[in-house]
Specification:
This protein is mainly alpha-helical. Helix content is about 55%, strand content about 10%. About 0% of the residues are buried.
Length: about 60
Amino acid sequence: MPSPRTLAIIVACLVLALSASWAARTYLAWQRCQSLGLVYAPGRGCVPLDDRPVILRRELQRT
């Protein structure tokens, strides 16, 4: 059985690798959206810059 220090190092490396993977994925998604002229929204992907509902975009009134 590995020592507690070895286990701590393994867990720390795993957390670091997962954090680096998340950061890289987020950065690449942001970069891809920028190249398409869109904005990256976490959890939603690439969305248009003006993401307001159509009724507000055209300044219409609700009836």
